[in-house]
Amino acid sequence: MEEIDPNFFLVEKKEKRRLPPLPGAEMGKVITRLPPEPNGYPHIGHGLSFYFNYYYAREYDGEVILRFDDTNPKAEKAEYYDAIKKDLKWLGLSWEREHNMSDDMEAYYDYAERLIMMGKAYMCGCDPEKVSKLRFNKCTCNCQQKSVDENIEQWLGMSGMEEGSMALRLRGDVTSQNTAMRDPTLFRVIRHPHPVQGDKYTVWPVYDFACSIEDSILGVTHVLRSNEFALRIELQDYIRGLLELRSPITMQYSRFTIRGSPTSKRLIRPLIEEKVVEGWDDPRLVTLRGLKRRGIIPETVHELAKEMGLSTAEPEIDWSLVESINRKLIDPISKRFFFVECPTEVDVEGMKEREISIRMHPEKDLGRRDMKVGERMFIPASDAGSIAAGEVLRLKDLCNIYIDNAGNGTIKAHVHTDEVDMRSIKKVQWVSIDPVEVNIISPSPLYIGKEVNPDSLTVLSGLGEPSIRALDVGEIVQFERFGFVRIDSKSEGLVTVVLSHK
RNA sequence: GCUCCGAUAGUGUAGUCCGGUCAAUCAUCCAGGCCUCUCGAGCCUGAGACUCGGGUUCGAAUCCCGGUCGGAGCACCA
Which partner for A194 in A22, A73, A83, A258 could form a disulfide, CB atoms 3.0-4.6 Å apart? Predict the structure, then answer.
């Protein structure tokens, strides 16, 4: 019986989370896209979206395209292109091709001209507000009566026009129930430098048009995206139909949120601007950077995506689910260290000054760490407060001590060598000679219900064992009996960590 | 307001297409126990749900109609 690999049973038991099969998917032929707009840092919602697209492409041995949806020069910023790629790499995703929508302007112009020639698009110089009202009331403006020649002439002169003065609109169906079909704008004039294209273009396609073309000419077979785009399918398929372009299969799912944590750029940006949080990587935020800083690992995001699936309900999960997944993933690979919050001194008579060596992990072989011990020890105030003279306490991985005096201030104790039932005595972590100061940044939800949480970020301090000094920024370790933390920064004599979770 | 989408334990999810095998899955959370030189991990047990009202049917979480609640869209943003 002992010869059987015990892992055999574990593998059987722990079934991997998987996503359901992708409709219309053929092995080796699936092409998906990651379509960020370079106007901010991705958050966990984007992360799940990216992961779905990545997952299916890999599952079907297909291809992933990283495509920057950068057709609004006023919104895009150069810094975000690389920043987003960095975040995607951190998430553990890879892609075969990289593309900017803004690189295909000539193609968009070409397809636009075709629509105009077909009489399916027209130049409109009406006030946007007026158009909006007309569309709302299922009415057209007179612009749609222009001749093809007139439209072409105006189209060719569009690049020289004033911003907001003219738009190219699709001849759709103003009476459609689907408001997106009511003669939507296809191109508008924007006189603003673009981070990649500079001042080269002033006539820019809107998302629906550029996306319709791109998803087809890039060969995308499956589009997985959140449901704010639900009404665009009909429109985009219609545009492609007119231009005889192939349409991909589109799957929708609801936006994903974590309770108490704003999960959209629209909500996150003002928090940063108003300095409610430090920046895009604030550990309270659910931006990928924020999660990283908090010690949430990429695999946790993957697992979360598989747990949610392409849900059409409106998932709003508790942090506890994220924490639980993360904890189970990092538990076997996190080195253990002693950290003592609010250190209370314990003078231990008979503790010979010497060097000891302790395992980094109780079950796994993660190496050992050394430290010096002497008579002067420190234990957490919370433990010190609950012990009384006459008790025996275990200094974890070291020895037992007998408490002689546990009044206010320093506790007096002596080494206790009598046999005791190890199961029945309290074990505490400790520090002794040459400890390092440690600050712990402890994030919690930014909102409790709709109220701002005034204590969303607290800082605790204490002493850590000397070997914590040698840890690298970014390492995730466990402070025993305290929680998992990620090393955030190090300076002379001080290590700052972020508390991931218990 | 209009259009579309959704609703399974506290939370998330499976099951709904093709009604019976669902006295409803799994995870998390909570409670209790075991194990452990951590308050972590692991193990065991328990508690906890089909939005409501009608209808079809021998039989409805599943099909139909209506209500309620929640979300999204109604940009010269994406």
Answer: A73
